[in-house]
Amino acid sequence: MTVNLGIGYPTRVVQYLEPGLQVCMHSENGIAGQGPALPFEEADRNLIDAGGAYVSTLPGTSFFDSATSFALVRGGRLDLTILGALQVAANGDLANWAIPGKFTPGVGGGVELAQKARRVVAVCTHLDKHGRSKIVPRCLLPLTAPACVDRVYTDMAVIDVTADGMALREIATGLSLDEVIAATDVALLIDENDLGTF
Amino acid sequence: MIDKTTGIEAAIEGIADGAVVMVGGFGVPGTPFMLIDELVRQNKKQLTVIKNDANERDMGVDHLLKNGQVAKLIVSHLGLNPHAIELMNEGRIEVEFCAQGILAERIRAAGAGLPAFLTDIAMDTLLAKGKPTIGFEGRQYLVEKALEADVALIHADASDPFGNLLYARSARNFNPLMAMAARTVIAETENLLPLGGIAPDAVHTPGPFVDHVVVLPELTREYAVVRR
Questions:
Q1: Taking 80 as the threshold, does the pLDDT of residue B190 lie above it?
Q2: Whose CA is closest to B93, among B67, B121, B127, B115?
Q3: What's the pTM value of the predicted model, to 2 decimals?
Q4: Could you tell me which residue, B110 or A11, shows the higher pLDDT?
């Protein structure tokens, strides 16, 4: 499968891939088959990922321009993207690019990844720095894309966005179910007989 | 074939105040730092700069910002340059954000002689504000306008005197697109090879798109690996 990792927590995922996993990592700046990050001493000045980290090639790596890179995304060739999130709404709306008046770094490739990848996974802390739930009934921050998120991984829980609402799949070891429910601003569908831990 | 090698001063001299300037690069790779330095030295004003990003503080495009030469930036993000975000928040520069692949495609469209294209990208977001929509085959789409420029500043790994260009690894990014979308295309190159020195199959940007080839002496520090 072809996978794109967003900037922030998602790019770290590449360091945890199981050896032998058949996956082609896409980087929006024009790489398919990106290899793991390299330390400063081994870095190639012309080879970075979308977050600016120095990365490596693998047998089978290819390079291309930015239009080709997003043709791959919009054309439906991306099986999965893992993106950071500021807020995820109950219907799968994603907000991850702007806090108006405070922090507006721009959207980069996020809109196209969120809108066109076949599966969209959000990775974020469960609570923002003020202790408020990032899982919300409706996003108050500017949207990246509507109804696009399939699953959310946080430090507290794994939650799927389903047609019936948000379904709790796993909770973090050491947390009670009540603690997760209290930390989440959306009513969760819960099957206690089928609830994992991580 | 014509020899397009040009001195850096003469190449940049043709840029007017108020020009729309495309600048290649995604972060450090592919950014034409030495062409930017010359643009700063010649102090061209009121520029509209089209680039994926605004580099980092004290690098590349940030020199133009510090020198007050930029009226407007058209970018996909500014995340690595807090100085650019400050200038935007203070209203000292205008910033137009564009989804990255749409930015690339708007540039590509201009280069291909197409005035606009239709897309559903960013349809229901703030990025669609002010953009016309149109119904086509039963669905609504945004009309995205082609983005052309007076000048494109390009960084190549290798060029021949005719301007056939080859880019290195992730330094390709926006360079070949911008090299098609401007009325005047200035390419700086790390290596000048003789005609035929780049195999025809390996040419990324064909020479007819390029007007000036500036051969770089030793690279400045900004091209090097950044220790973060």
A1: yes
A2: B67
A3: 0.95
A4: B110
Of residues B130, B131, B129, B152, the one with CA closest to residue B47: B152
pLDDT band at A109 (very low <50, low <70, confident <90, very high): very high
Residue B18 lies in a domain: yes
Residue B134 lies in a domain: no
Asked if B228 is an interface residue toward chain A (Cβ–Cβ < 8 A), one would say yes
φ/ψ of residue A12, rounded to 5: -70, -20
Catalytic site residue from A28, A170, A179, A192 = A28
Domains of chain A plus CATH, in order, are 1-78 (no CATH), 81-198 (3.40.1080.10)
Whether B86 has its CB under 8 Å from any CB of chain A: the answer is no
Backbone angles phi, psi at B145, to 5 degrees: -80, 140
Contacts of A174 (CB under 8 A, 6+ apart): none
**CB B203 within 8 Å of CB B167:** no
Q: How many helices (H) and strands (E) does chain B have?
A: 6, 11
Please count the structural domains in chain B. Answer: 1
How many Å apart are CA B56 and CA B60, to the nearest integer? 8
Binary contact (B100, A28; C-beta < 8 A): yes
pLDDT tens sequence across B48-70: 999 999 999 999 999 999 999 99
Instruction: Tell me, yes or no, if B124 comes closer than 8 A to chain A by beta carbon.
Output: yes
CB atoms within 10 A of CB B138: 5
CATH of the domain at B209: 3.40.1080.10
Helix or strand or coil: residue A63? strand
Q: Which residues of B touch A108 (CB under 8 A)?
A: 76-77, 79, 100
